[in-house]
Amino acid sequence: MPRARPFPSGSCHDERALRWSFQIEGDFGGLGDVGRTCLYRVVQEALTNCARHAEAKMIRIAMQGKKDAVSLSVQDDGVGFDTARGRTDLGLIGIEERVKELGGAAA
């Protein structure tokens, strides 16, 4: 991946009128195929959850590549959920497991 990559904002043209924005900065060159696949799958699942469960209208994704780490943030304006109940959704559990396999943490 290049050092910095601007992504346009966009929207889905369906009944949900879902809008999104991407911000990607930094160096992802040392990430490797396993790490890239993990990021892709985590973002894919997060977007699915935002659209399906959160009733979100706007989703913001920010990724920052650093020398030895990658930071990924997914935010939406949806209804949210009770984090005190723990992770029960298979999608969230899958995100945690993917990230943990690479030595990371999901919060």
Approximate helicity band: 25-40%
Proportion of strand residues: 25-35%
Largest sheet: 5 strands, mixed
Total beta strands: 5
- Total discrete domains: 1
How many angstroms separate the termini? 25 Å
Mean pLDDT figure? 80
Q: Looking at CATH, which topology would you report? A: Heat Shock Protein 90
Any guess at the CATH architecture?
2-Layer Sandwich
The value of Rg in angstroms is 14 Å
CATH first level: Alpha Beta
SS field, number of helical segments: 2
Inertia-based shape: globular
Q: Low-confidence runs (pLDDT<50, min 5 residues)?
A: 1-7
The assigned structural class equals alpha+beta
Oligomer: single chain
Annotated CATH homologous superfamily: Histidine kinase-like ATPase, C-terminal domain
Secondary-structure element order, N to C: EEEHEEH
Q: Any descriptors?
A:
107 residues; alpha+beta; Heat Shock Protein 90; five-stranded mixed sheet; 2 helices
Report on the structure:
Strands 1, 2, 3, 4 and 5 form a 5-stranded mixed β-sheet that branches. The protein starts with a strand and ends in a 6-residue tail after the last helix. It has helices spanning about 30-50, 90-100, and strands spanning about 5, 10, 20-25, 60-65, 70-75. It is of the alpha+beta class and about 110 residues long. It has 2 helices and 5 strands, in the order E-E-E-H-E-E-H. It has a single domain (about 5-100), classed as Heat Shock Protein 90, CATH 3.30.565.10.
